[in-house]
Design the sequence.
């Protein structure tokens, strides 16, 4: 064996190489998702369409993630993780480049649809690959590090998008990131990642492992609760901040940056705590209860600074819930050859929460003031946290 082949084998066998690749994949997906935020308003006058059309196109990402996450996860169980990650990254590069040359609404629809399908492939296969190659004893921390890339991409994406658009123009805003995404896809292709699946051959996936209906339902409730909270906070907190404190767009952006930064630091830390001490009852049940308290505190805060403190606490507590649920979900499927199915289900449930939150909020907004909607969300989280506390105790989760 040559030195070059030996180096490639060593990298392929390294869990550190896997986590670097997965972090890159998640970061780039979320960076490009955020990249579009400052640019999307330009499409309405440019294409001569109503803003509502642009809003529908923007929502296609979540719809595709919802539809394709489980099929992509199951497919990765059959054909392996690396092929799905490579295809997903190349599709993301194609979608990003298509945004750069779009001249019609049809182009935008195609680009956004492909972007969502690519995310379903890379997220499902990437998280499954991480779970498959990581020692279960440190999976919480590893997943926390990987998922913290969501916050980094969310924060940096709009910044990069705005700067590229202002200084290099419309086409370069998308073509430069497209090249970067394609390069990462080729990197995954060039460095083969060795997994048990590639050596044992394709397995038979099990969507609902026998005897695990109650644990799966508990995981589903926690994931939807967290995603649904973001689904309410993202569209309606800016409106509340502007109405209550006359907050400017820059100030509102700072508050959301606080939320993202809290998640960036809290996820690896919460994962490390879970790996070493367990405590899912405290991290999940307690995390949901404290999330409800944080939202209620934000609504009662007399100053914008105190709202930002409450939002920071909310980012920490929601992160504790997610990072604890992920290794539990992985453990349920570990003995059934279905890690791809596990993370396809995770993505689907998260998409459900993100989709349900805004719609429920819109329905309530016609009848209730915004503070009452947030207080209702706080009550729901608190009740779910109390129920989760007792259910987790009965299930005996560590």
Sequence:
């Amino acid at each position: 064996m040559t030195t070059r082949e030996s180096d490639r084998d060593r990298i392929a066998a390294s869990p550190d190489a896997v986590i670097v690749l997965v972090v890159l994949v998640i970061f780039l997906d979320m960076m490009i998702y955020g990249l579009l935020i400052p640019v999307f308003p330009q499409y309405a006058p440019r294409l001569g369409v109503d803003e509502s059309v642009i809003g529908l196109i923007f929502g296609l990402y979540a719809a595709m993630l919802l539809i394709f996450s489980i099929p992509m996860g199951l497919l990765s169980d059959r054909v392996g993780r690396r092929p799905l990650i490579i295809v997903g990254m190349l599709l993301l590069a194609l979608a990003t480049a298509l945004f750069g040359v779009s001249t019609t609404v049809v182009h935008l629809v195609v680009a956004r649809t492909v972007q969502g399908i690519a995310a379903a492939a890379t997220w499902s296969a990437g998280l499954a690959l991480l779970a498959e190659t990581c020692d279960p004893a440190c999976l919480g921390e590893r997943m926390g590090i990987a998922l913290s890339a969501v916050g980094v991409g969310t924060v940096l994406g709009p910044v990069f998008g705005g700067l590229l658009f202002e200084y290099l123009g419309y086409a370069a805003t998308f073509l430069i990131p497209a090249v970067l995404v394609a390069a990462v896809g080729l990197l995954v292709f060039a460095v083969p990642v060795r997994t048990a699946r590639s050596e044992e051959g394709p397995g038979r996936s099990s969507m609902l492992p026998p005897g695990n209906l109650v644990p799966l339902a508990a995981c589903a409730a926690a994931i939807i609760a967290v995603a649904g909270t973001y689904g309410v906070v993202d569209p309606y907190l800016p409106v509340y901040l502007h109405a209550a404190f006359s907050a400017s767009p820059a100030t509102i952006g700072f508050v959301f940056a606080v939320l993202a930064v809290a998640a960036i630091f809290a996820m690896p830390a919460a994962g490390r705590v879970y790996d070493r001490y367990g405590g899912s009852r405290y991290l999940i049940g307690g995390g949901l209860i404290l999330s409800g308290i944080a939202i209620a505190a934000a609504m009662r805060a007399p100053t914008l600074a105190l709202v930002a403190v409450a939002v920071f606490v909310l980012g920490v507590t929601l992160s504790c819930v997610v990072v604890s649920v992920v290794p539990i979900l992985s453990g349920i499927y570990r003995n059934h050859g279905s890690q791809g199915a596990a993370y396809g289900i995770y993505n689907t449930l998260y998409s459900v929460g993100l989709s349900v939150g805004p719609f429920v909020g819109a329905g309530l907004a016609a009848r209730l003031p915004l503070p009452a909607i947030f207080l209702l969300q706080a009550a729901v989280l608190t009740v779910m946290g109390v129920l989760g506390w007792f259910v987790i105790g009965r299930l005996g989760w560590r």
The radius of gyration is 21 Å. Residues 5-13, 196-203 have pLDDT under 50 and may be disordered. The longest helix spans residues 213-245. The chain has two domains: 3-194, 213-395.
